[in-house]
Design a protein that fits this description.
It is a multi-pass membrane protein. Its main location: membrane. This is MFS transporter. Keywords: Cell membrane, Membrane, Transmembrane, Transmembrane helix, Transport. With about 425 residues, the protein is mainly α. The chain has a single domain, classed as Growth Hormone, Chain: A, CATH 1.20.1250. The protein is built from 18 helices and no strands. α1 (about 5-20) runs parallel beside α6 (about 125-150) and α9 packs parallel to α10.
Length: about 425
């Protein structure tokens, strides 16, 4: 990696370390520590996602016009303020407002950082660059969750305030690191024309919505994020604490198991993914997650000991991690390979927006996971099987090079160098 890429990856890891302190414990913090109940906790998750839904539709255009660096800086400051305010809030109104700011900041960072990685990579190195990003993010997330699980105490609200304070500082650290990054080039808007004449004309969003392969990828992405991250951070945590009797410290260990699976499997999985069709890899993830939901159901049946329930719950998070390791070098590079020249920010923002829409609906699983646990598990077994089916349908819309870049080595047929760029130089998309 070059110096710019190393700094981007380091900033990602440090930010994820801060987020790991709070992600597994937000439900407990709002519902139990602040005594506001499960519906208030559900509202906080929805507010977190709504903040992203408000900001993301405008983010892609700003990234493509102004570059990703100022977008990352603004988002980091907003997220830091939201995290600090959330840790100090005691009532439902300030908690919701803080969650809005934190959600908007975190969501806007995603397409901006992804665009920085695209600019600092080539089609030949992009798959590994995104795999490294995911590896570093989850390493930081898992370490943060493991340490945070040992710090939190439901009887000491100040321990949660400390966690949110650490998260706020880490966002500012990201901003400081990104300020030192020198991007390899600036966006050239005059060259930002669609490669496909059928996509010419209209706004960026209109062209994107006429791109059939991208639309199908967005639908698939929605289902993936709804079935994994939308439940991972809300419904599954509620299921574990309410139905399976999982303690807060066990949630921390489950997150660490998720990260451990990624750390162990990421680069072994990467070798497999680089030589396989992306659509088939995503379909396999759907099957792996189906098994994960079956095991999660076992943890809530109550037929075994508390230790067996905890082991099953932790295994569920580990299997999710293996699936995530397979998706990290697959989804983000595919978005970049589908993006018209000069529109990578727009496409990254659209994909991030779909993720946040899934997260906004994900907390609807909290009452189901806590109150009707077996129906909750059965629903997401079906959803995971749906991921496999949708992935196979997407594969029919992709060119051979988009579905399996190894067929053409470093030359991506549907993704040529930008005008004036030399072979091997980083390009915008």
């Amino acid at each position: 990696m070059g110096a710019a890429m190393r700094r981007i990856q380091a900033g990602n890891a440090l930010t994820a370390f801060g987020i790991g302190f709070t992600v597994p414990f937000l439900y407990i913090y709002v519902a139990q520590v602040r005594g506001l109940g499960s519906m208030a906790a559900t509202s906080a998750f929805v507010a977190f996602a709504l903040g992203a839904l408000v900001a993301l539709p405008f983010t892609g255009r700003v990234i493509d016009r102004r570059g990703p660096v100022p977008v990352v800086l603004g988002a980091a400051v907003a997220a830091s303020a939201g995290a600090l305010a959330l840790g100090l809030s005691t009532g439902i109104a300030p908690i919701l407002l803080s969650a809005l700011a934190l959600g908007a900041g975190q969501a806007v960072m995603q397409p901006a950082l992804a665009t920085m990685i695209v600019w600092c990579s080539t089609p030949a190195t992009r798959t590994r660059s995104f795999a490294m990003q995911f590896f570093m993010q989850n390493l930081g997330l898992g370490i943060g969750g493991l340490i945070g699980g040992q710090i939190v105490d439901e009887n000491r609200p100040g321990s949660f305030t400390l966690l949110f304070g650490i998260e706020a500082v880490m966002f500012l650290v990201l901003a400081a690191v990104i300020l030192t990054v020198r991007m390899p080039h600036a966006p050239v808007i005059k060259d930002a024309v669609p490669r496909d004449p059928a996509q010419a004309g209209g706004s960026g969003w209109q062209r994107l919505l006429r791109h059939r392969a991208m639309v199908k990828l967005l639908v698939l992405g929605f289902v993936i994020f709804f079935a994994c991250y939308g439940q991972f951070e809300s419904g599954l945590a509620a299921f574990g604490t309410e139905a399976a009797g999982i303690s807060p410290s066990t949630l921390g260990f489950a997150l660490a198991a998720n990260t451990g699976a990624i750390v162990v499997a990421q680069f072994a999985v990467l070798k497999l993914v680089e030589k396989r069709r992306r659509s088939r890899v995503i379909a396999l993830v759907g099957l792996i997650w189906t098994v994960a939901w079956v095991i999660a159901g076992f943890s809530g049946l109550g037929h075994g000991s508390a230790m067996m329930a905890a082991a099953a719950f932790i295994s569920t998070y580990a299997l999710f991690g293996i699936g995530e390791a397979m998706l990290s070098p697959t989804l983000a590079p595919l978005v970049a390979d589908l993006a018209p020249e000069g529109s990578v920010g727009q496409y990254n923002s659209a994909f991030a927006l779909v993720k946040q829409m899934a997260l906004a609906l994900g907390p609807l699983g909290v009452p189901l996971g806590a109150g009707v646990p077996m129906l909750y598990i059965g629903t997401f077994i079906v959803v995971s099987l749906g991921i496999a089916a949708l992935a196979l349908r997407l594969g029919k819309q992709l060119s051979p090079a988009q579905d399996n870049p190894s067929l053409v080595g470093s030359r991506i047929v549907a993704q040529g160098p930008a005008a004036g760029a030399k072979v091997g130089e980083p390009v915008a998309a």
